[in-house]
Amino acid sequence: MTTRLPLASRREVRQWARRTAAQHRREFSLMLGLFFLATLIGLAGPQLLGLLVDGVVGHGTTLRVDLLAVAFVVVLVLQAWAKKAARLRGRVFGERVLAENRERFVKNALDLPLGTVEAAGTGDLLSRATSDVSRLDHAVRFAAPEILIATVTVLLTTIAMIVTSPLLALTLLVAIPLLVPVNIWYQRVIPKAFAWMLDRWGDLQSVTHETVEGARTAEALSLTERRLRTGHRALDQAVLGERRMRSYQLRWLPSLEISYVLPIAALLLLGLLAYQQGWAGLGTITTMLAYAQAMTAPLNEALFWLEDLQVAVAAARRILGVQPPETAAKVTDVPRGRGIEVRDVRFGYTADREVLHGISLSVPRGERLAIVGPSGAGKSTLGRLLAGISAPTAGTIQVGGTEVSTLADDVLRGEVLLLTQEHHTFSGTLRENLALPARRDGGDWTDEELTAALASAGAAEWAAGLPDGLDTKLGSGAYAVPAGLAQQLALARVVLADPHTLVLDEATSLLDTGSARELERSLNAVLEGRTVIAIAHRLHTAAAADRVAVVEGGQITELGPHQELIAAGGPYSRLVEAAS
């Protein structure tokens, strides 16, 4: 069962927008100033057109008419230049803002507790980091500047109409009875519709990602058809979200289209009456019609981009919702080399399904403990609790007498490090992949240290054969790293991290049995003096351990040295017999 990552409130989105504008006050002011300049220049066009009409009707001089015509053309050119400059500044401003927020999002995502990320599923975080960031990027660079231009144009045009002819400007009021109630209704229903739609697309991305990642397992267990049905259901829900949103828009958009056509019709009727009664001249009426017509273009632009902006607001709520939790001050100093104490630990992924039932265990310094048992018994769950990735529902886990949950992350990783069978090769050089753990003295890893770590993990020969050695680029679009070698690189990183206690959860599962044994032998010297807790399905690992803990049904049913458990003829003896 997944738990969705939280959403930021609309208020938090507004605060983010204001804070961003304040942080980039100079760029934002320049962009806004250019938008105002473009609109002000555009307001001169209808005035010149009205004077031109009055000049022609009043039989003005040819020179005056020609000058007005030239001035009208100059205004159009200047307005086009100002709009281009404003849009350019808007794109630059948007790129800068999005670059900062991408970095902030990545930092916040990395600061999230691993348990929170795993409970939410990789798809939710992945969709926020990709499609939602892209939606926000598009809106900031394109939709927001265009809507800002449209808003400024409509406001200043309305003021110009009131100044030119207060009587004829009254025609703008005819749209209010239609415009206000429709927009109140729309703004009430659309935020939830957009949020629901984006959640469904996030679910679809999550299902697709999990299906692709687990394709071999699904095929081996004959679950391919079930995964396909799950994907189709997720797609249907995403399409339903799109249709629900479009149904609201189909009721909203026609009302807006009518609302800005009505004032033009009313202006024609009132203008005719005003001209007959001598209340307004033909040039004034022409100017007002030009203003009213000029308002339709920015309104159309606003309608065109408004959907993108609304989607971006929903996306921003998802992006800003990824925030590391506020926690109490963490312990930053704990004596290295102490043992681990597990006392009456209980844990469940959901409230109604407990996985571990009152486990107690003492692991002294330097011991090699193997944890074995049938699949689904809770072995990996126990390993996650020991490494502090998840917190127990009840009971305590202490390292050196300090509760694991109270340790700062960097301190905890120096004490206990979990290495699973899932490994990732990052896009970058071999040197960058190895140097992810920070040195305790804050310096840089030397080539000799990196090469020694590779040798400890059994990958020195492979690294020596790379075309550029430690500077060879790995990952997507570069030198491909097989799964087994990716595990060895992860082990080399562990050697560099130098943890006091290492929890190995099938960390050599992708290697064949012979290679795994050889690697474990080469690691023995490196791991000398460290506490090693190995969760293993290959029982030769258990045979070489100081003690073996057998986990069945979320409880430790046997604990002791290999030979004693074999002689006891209990669950461990039966596991060994079945494996042989």
UniProtKB/TrEMBL annotation:
Main localization (coarse): membrane
Keywords (A to Z) from UniProt: ATP-binding, Membrane, Nucleotide-binding, Transmembrane, Transmembrane helix
Annotated SMART domains: AAA
Domain ABC transmembrane type-1 as annotated: residue spans: 30-310
Lipid bilayer topology: Multi-pass membrane protein
Entry-linked Gene3D superfamilies: ABC transporter type 1, transmembrane domain (1.20.1560.10), P-loop containing nucleotide triphosphate hydrolases (3.40.50.300)
UniProt key word Lipoprotein: no
Pfam families reported in the protein's UniProt record: ABC_membrane, ABC_tran
Cell compartment(s), UniProt: Cell membrane
PANTHER family: ATP-BINDING CASSETTE SUB-FAMILY B MEMBER 10, MITOCHONDRIAL, ATP-DEPENDENT PERMEASE MDL1, MITOCHONDRIAL
Name of this protein: ABC transporter ATP-binding protein
